[in-house]
Amino acid sequence: MSETPTAQAFIDHSLRLAQIANPESAIVHFNDPLPLDCGAELSPFSTAYKTYGTLNAEKSNLVLVCHALTGDQHVANLHPVTGKPGWWETMVGPGKPIDTDRYFVLCPNVIGGCMGSTGPSSLNPATGIPYGPDFPVITVRDMVRAQARLLDHLGIPDVLCVLGGSMGGMQVLEWAATYKDRVFSAVPIACAARHSSQNIAFHEVGRQAVMADPEWCQGRYLEEGKSPRKGLAVARMAAHITYLSDAALHQKFGRNLQDREKVAFGFDADFQVESYLRYQGVSFVDRFDANSYLYITRAMDYFDIAADHGGVLANAFAGTRTRFCLVSFTSDWLFPTEESREIVHALNAVAAKVSFVEIKSDKGHDAFLLHEPELFDTIRGFLSAAARKRGIL
Amino acid sequence: MSETPTAQAFIDHSLRLAQIANPESAIVHFNDPLPLDCGAELSPFSTAYKTYGTLNAEKSNLVLVCHALTGDQHVANLHPVTGKPGWWETMVGPGKPIDTDRYFVLCPNVIGGCMGSTGPSSLNPATGIPYGPDFPVITVRDMVRAQARLLDHLGIPDVLCVLGGSMGGMQVLEWAATYKDRVFSAVPIACAARHSSQNIAFHEVGRQAVMADPEWCQGRYLEEGKSPRKGLAVARMAAHITYLSDAALHQKFGRNLQDREKVAFGFDADFQVESYLRYQGVSFVDRFDANSYLYITRAMDYFDIAADHGGVLANAFAGTRTRFCLVSFTSDWLFPTEESREIVHALNAVAAKVSFVEIKSDKGHDAFLLHEPELFDTIRGFLSAAARKRGIL
Q: What's the Rg (C-alpha) of chain B?
């Protein structure tokens, strides 16, 4: 790697990112290449992760939490960039449904991400500058493969439970399909066995918004000292609508005006919902890398477990001994209940142990991140039962 | 107006647009100002329109068709810009449900539009350059007010039927509320009495996409010789998804790949749905003005008939003698059936003559533009009954 001032700047940038991500995270660097579904390999690669609670002597109490598209490893601590609570603080902690007094909780940042794990903003060892568009296209299975390597590194043979919502749920399914003997129980929440046409369409809109921003610079914005903030904000705004429900938006905002008595006959944010969305867009770009957004949405689009198993979803789970609990939400139109039901049918077809809960909620897809007592009860109960079955007190 | 070369260029541009729109349309220029809801007025202003069939001697057979957000007056003829069939050719024509052998069909381009009626791309008489962001923010009621002026000009006292889908349906409701004595019957299709929070949110995403494009130039792209094509294409893509249904996308595209056997591990359009959406975006910008898109979406956001009548929707229709037929589609999630039902309730509250048809369709919001035999039958039957009631053979 040539130590030109430019390269040095990127190393500084990379270190700064790692420092931001680090105070609460560990990072493991792997020198053995990670083979990818696209045929390329990632070498070296890093995985940043966060843990909560204590691994027991039998190493049998690991709960692996998989994060969603724009999530990261900061599950239950203040986020080092935003200063906000962790994304699943209601779920993970002492005495909480995923009880850190009882379980050892691990959440890795996915590869392709931007919170310390290797992704498009990482330095490409071949060039000494950030990968940018030269980063290989990854899949959900690649993410899971990297997580399995992390478990190997930590010397943990298997997981008591792997769980997550949305793209986290896709990882859960991939874990159960790819590492059958390492998954005692699995909780895929608000997800599907394949990304739907409509969901691909929404992702494509987001990507086009990013790529339409001239500051994207064909993906080389870090080198150019630019940032496609506007494009990424638009992408986030569009996506954010899909995470909510019509009812949730109606209850939260209706047609309420923002700091005014009547409409202003202009293009400022007259309505609270506009102001809210703009805030979602603008605050997102402060904590997320635009290329990571492209790569991770692409990984979700490519997700299709049946296709990877001869076109038959049940094949993916043949012979499984994992205990499954699937969860969906009535108002989730991004991953509707029907998609969870298809997974249940496939699991039934291979006589898997499976329970399925459809939770009545008007919060839309985001329900899995919000205060949903029935979700808390479901996870607490399922996890407890799995732990007892494994002899964990 | 100073005849500088620049101003001349815009006049040429304006004339060229008018010529494109004109071969199939008439344009009426009004010198009397059009008062607008925002308090400003438009003066002078023009309305381009298209007619089909013949006005009878009694002037009692006018069917006024109101177009949707991105529609125009080219209902049933080849579109002069795209060369494609008119947007409602299945509905309007000799022997068709809106039978031009029987009815005189009129469709005006809305003000704010870009197919010959005065809009943000028109020359501002005060400056001699296109209005751009100086165009006043208009409302659906303003559009309807301009249409009433057109009827006055044509010497037609009232309409046998006013009908339209989506924003066209909003205009229908506004006609029935504002010009009670001029509307014999009304068919609002796939619409609502007010724009929902979720719909405002999607519009805001589209507007932000346009305004994020540096070629938007704060709305002065015509003067700068630029065009926010990328931003407008992204806006159209996002909107287009909302016009369809999950089921329609699934049936049409599923996860089918575009001209390839397997995914390419890149950001080209691997999936047919991506390719389709990109085409929708790119082809739209060839026929639509970006500022018109901003202004018309804003008019829809502002639409809230109840708010204009003391907060009670029924008040808007008190004393109406209009015969109503409302139509909704089961898979329309942009304007769900519930929203039509609210209008029906309000009409019932004032003892209006109202029928309501919810059509089972998996085509989503766009169903009103597509081959839906039950819609054809409904409109043919309702219109025939209204015509008979009026003594039209």
A: 21
B237 CB neighbours in chain A (<8 A) are 201, 204-205, 208
Nearest CA distance, B371 vs chain A (angstrom): 22
For residues B70 and B177, membership in a common domain is answered with yes
CA atoms of A63 and A149, how far apart (whole Å): 16
CB B188 within 8 A of CB B343: yes
Phi and psi angles of residue B105, each rounded to the nearest 5 degrees, phi first: -100, 130
Q: Give the active site residues of A.
A: 166, 332, 365
Chain B CB contacts of A277 below 8 Å:
201, 204-205
- Kindly list the distances between the CA atom of residue B69 and the CA atoms of A142, B114, B292, B299, B371, in Å, as whole numbers in the listed order: 43, 11, 9, 10, 20
- Residue A225 placed within a domain: yes
List the CATH number of the domain containing B280.
1.10.1740.110
Q: What is the domain range of residue A44?
A: 5-197+306-389
What are B178-236's pLDDT values in tens digits?
A: 999 999 999 999 999 999 999 999 999 999 999 999 999 999 999 999 999 999 999 99
| CA-based nearest distance B348→chain A, Å | 24
- Yes or no, beta carbons of A249 and B196 under 8 Å apart: yes
Closest CA in chain B for residue A204: B274
Task: For B84-122, write each residue's pLDDT tens digit.
Answer: 999 999 999 999 999 999 999 999 999 999 999 999 999
Rounded to two decimals, the pTM is 0.93
